[in-house]
Amino acid sequence: MEAGMVSVDRWTHGSQVYFLTHIHSDHTKGLSSTWKLAPLYCSRITAKLFPSKFPGFNLSLLRIVETGVWYSLSLIAPSSNSLVTVKAMAIDAQHCPGAVMYLFQGEFGCMLYTGDFRWERTSKKAQFGKNMLLNALRDKKIDNLYLDNTYCNPSFMFPSREVAAQQVVDIIASNPDHDIIIGIDSLGKEELLLNISRVLKTKIWVWPERLQTMHLLGLHGIFTTKTSVTRVRAVPRYSFSIDTLEGLNLVRPTIGIMPSGLPWALKWVGENRDPLQSSSRSVSRGDRINRSSNIGSYSNIEMPNMMVKSFERYHKYMYAVPYSDHACFAEIQEFIELLQPDTIKGIVSSSPSYVDPHYYFSHLCRGIQPSCKYQKLERPTERKKDEELHTKYNFGSKKFVGAASEHRRIRPRALHSREGCVSILRRERRGVKILETDCKD
Ligand SMILES: [Zn+2]
Predict the structure, then answer these.
(1) Mapping DSSP to helix (H, G, I), strand (E, B) and coil, where does residue 65 land?
(2) Family assignment (predicted)?
(3) What share of the chain is helix, strand, coil (3-state, %, to 5)?
(4) How far apart, in whole angstroms, are the C-alpha atoms of residue 265 and residue 309?
């Protein structure tokens, strides 16, 4: 597709139409209440959340897309000044409420921008999405895949959300005399909270703005802002720390639960390196990734054992549970195997730890691979990959935050990691102006 036509999750000047995959803040940087560049396409749920996220936003700019429906856009090709048609379809990304992928078709070929997504192999909803995508493609193939590469590293292995949700329920049920606090973001993890509420027959406390969001999502009667009616509280992730838990335990016995794919990966990294190693519980052999895998072939990752992996107790007051709204490495691989794109571009590209998805998956792509960045890279050793993972996180803070956070710090004190401080900025911004050259540089 020519430059100057379509942007996805990118809000600068220069495009004729804009698409928003979901309303997490790392996808809306540059979008504001006063933004008015052009029509903005998004899902119905995202549109519903717009006024609270961007008060005063001109809602007449929004164009709601339903999933599974082709929308035809008449745009001007800047090079020829002629009218061209671009077709777009939204597909449920199974990430957070309202999150969708976008499939584009036109003279340029076929592009898929996943935004953030999680398609678990055991999920019926994911299967529905796969069928929708394959039906839309028919006999066509994806030329350019813009991929959620958040966990595009074999160290990121975690179970389905269904399994992880049961782990959270088990922790809560086995601590009947404790107050429970769970760290969440301003959107996402609703299914986890609903599952806790349903199984344990309890309401869940959320902060007032979050209650408003729950109501906008149609979730009534489950969440409350009254602390007296429940011992389970979902709190903003940024307020969640060991310090907070220690303070709360001076008053009442309290444990914290952090649902994220991130601490899970930290544990893997810590197996081989200080400082994490000292306090991570040992891992059974069957849970380990087979690190003798050849580059480009990870079929021998021991996923079945990972599926029954238990949570981690990082601190006497803190549990980390591998509940993530992003695809783990094996799911990314499965996704690429399904689509066999010509080229792949990771949408998380601002991190210094970025690894070109071609590094792991070039053998699954149909096309000739980009000739510069990837091929000039030294093939990382396993140790180097560990270092790359390490650089993704910051161990200098007492905040215990997870994968979807940006510019935040991790300092799981229980990991005794002060001497291992590594600073990073992660996911400064996402999104692309769709450019003809995007996948060819
Ligand atoms: Zn997201």
Answers:
(1) strand
(2) Belongs to the DNA repair metallo-beta-lactamase (DRMBL) family.
(3) 30, 20, 50
(4) 13
Report residue 334 CA to chain centroid gap. Answer: 16
pLDDT at 364: 87
Residue 181 and residue 235 in contact, taking contact as beta carbons nearer than 8 Å:
yes
How far apart are the CA of 273 and the centre of ligand 1, in A?
Answer: 30
Q: List, as one string, the DSSP characters of 198-240.
A: HHHT--EE--HHHHHHHHHTT--SSEES-GGG-SEEEEEGGG-
Rounded to an integer, what distance in angstroms lies between the CA atom of residue 160 and that of residue 158? 7
Q: How confident is the model at residue 374 (pLDDT cuts 50, 70, 90)?
A: very low
Measured in Å, residue 230 CA sits from the centre of ligand 1 at 28
Average pLDDT for 330-357: 84
Tens digit of pLDDT for each residue in 62-86? 999 999 999 999 999 888 889 999 9
**Count of all residues that appear for the chain in the document:** 441
How far is ligand 1, taken at its centre, from the CA of residue 252, in Å? 34
The answer, yes or no, to whether residue 287 has pLDDT greater than 50, is: no
Residues with CB under 5 A from ligand 1 (ion): 24, 116
Cross-strand partners of 74: 85
The single-letter code of the amino acid at 153 is: N
> How far apart, in whole angstroms, are the C-alpha atoms of residue 438 and residue 441?
6
Q: Tell me the C-alpha distance between 159 and 127, whole Å.
A: 17
Nearest CA among 144, 157, 153 for reference residue 359: 153
Alpha-carbon torsion angle 160, 161, 166, 168, nearest 10: 130
Helix (H) / strand (E) containing 171: helix 161-173
Q: Report pLDDT for 321.
A: 92
Q: How many helices (H) and strands (E) does the chain have?
A: 12, 18
d(CA 418, CA 397): 9
With a cut of 80, say whether residue 311 has pLDDT above it. Answer: no
What are residue 254's DSSP bridge partners? 179
Gap from CA of 120 to ligand 1 centroid (Å): 16
Cα of 288 vs centre of ligand 1, distance in Å, is 28
The label of the residue with tokens 């300092």 reads 411
Cα 327 to the chain's mean position, in Å?
7
Phi-psi region of 5 (alpha: psi -120 to 50; beta: other; left: phi over 0): alpha
* pLDDT tens per residue across span 82-134: 999 999 999 999 999 999 999 999 998 999 999 999 999 999 999 999 999 99
- Judge whether 357 and 365 are in contact, CB under 8 Å: no
Phi, psi of 147 (to 5 degrees): -115, 140
What does the CA dihedral 23, 24, 25, 31 come to, rounded to 10 degrees? -20
